[in-house]
């Protein structure tokens, strides 16, 4: 599909779209706790993500950054994997693995190409410190780091998508969300944003391939960020 000519700003989902959370966490566990099934541990940690956010959105918890939600989930799952005895320093360091996630092999090169033509910003439920540390370590060339933390609302709340457009004083149709998750893209589309789907079949690990079939409602569908750059003429 041709590049929507009016798009000026590309917003990026991060976990799974730009960085490989599963592979990074599994590798960290292999290094620190080789006796633990890193695949199962990564999946269990991620499984707690939506329920934890739901507690905030329902008012059960006050506004909580993702770093704190990750820690709540971590403390809950550690005993399940025989790690209930980890001390506070070890728990704190393990929780920061989310700041150290590795990019997919195409991410830095793809973003670098896209940056020549578009303004690039994160739009993640991850908090600002996490996203900034991740970008610094991985060399992700953002023009701006935006987060649910800015809007005190998690995606897919419309406040995130519309808030990001408003930061740049752009109408929604001049903004495109890039993500590997159809629910995120549907939320953006409902707010009038353009959408680009990125295939990440191994997001949940090689043992759990993900269906990456196209969704016709998206403006663009790309294998990776390099192909997205091709499609957008960058």
UniProtKB/TrEMBL annotation:
Keyword match Hydrolase: yes
Q: Which reaction does it catalyse?
A: an (S)-2-haloacid + H2O = a (2R)-2-hydroxycarboxylate + a halide anion + H(+)
E.C. number(s) listed in UniProt: 3.8.1.2
Question: According to its UniProt record, what is one Pfam family this protein matches?
Answer: Hydrolase
Which terms are listed as keywords in the entry? Hydrolase
Residue spans crossing the bilayer: none
Q: Name the InterPro entries on file.
A: 2-HAD, HAD-like_sf, HAD-SF_hydro_IA, HAD_sf, PGP-like_dom2, S-2-haloacid_dehalogenase
Q: Does the keyword Hydrolase apply?
A: yes
Question: Which PANTHER family does its entry note?
Answer: HALOACID DEHALOGENASE, TYPE II (AFU_ORTHOLOGUE AFUA_2G07750)-RELATED (PTHR43316:SF3), HYDROLASE, HALOACID DELAHOGENASE-RELATED (PTHR43316)
Its biological purpose is as follows: Catalyzes the hydrolytic dehalogenation of small (S)-2-haloalkanoic acids to yield the corresponding (R)-2-hydroxyalkanoic acids.
Q: Which family does it belong to?
A: Belongs to the HAD-like hydrolase superfamily. S-2-haloalkanoic acid dehalogenase family.
Q: Could you identify this protein by its name? A: (S)-2-haloacid dehalogenase
Q: What is the lineage of its organism?
A: Bacteria, Pseudomonadati, Pseudomonadota, Betaproteobacteria, Burkholderiales
